[in-house]
Amino acid sequence: MSPEVRQLFADIAALPPDERVRELDRRSPDAAVRREVELLLTADALTDSRIEGPIRRAATDLAATSVPLRLGAWRTVSLLGQGGLGFVYKAERCDGTVEQTAAIKLLYRGLETQELLNRFQRERSILARLSHGRAVLCMELGDAACAIASADRSLTVIRA
Amino acid sequence: MRGILVDHARARGAEKRGGGAVLPLTKPGSAIAPAKELGLESILDVHNAMTALEVSDPHLARLLEMRFFAGMTAEDAAAALNLSVHAVRHDLRLGQAWLKKELAK
Question: Which residue of A has its CA nearest to B88?
Answer without folding.
Answer: A10
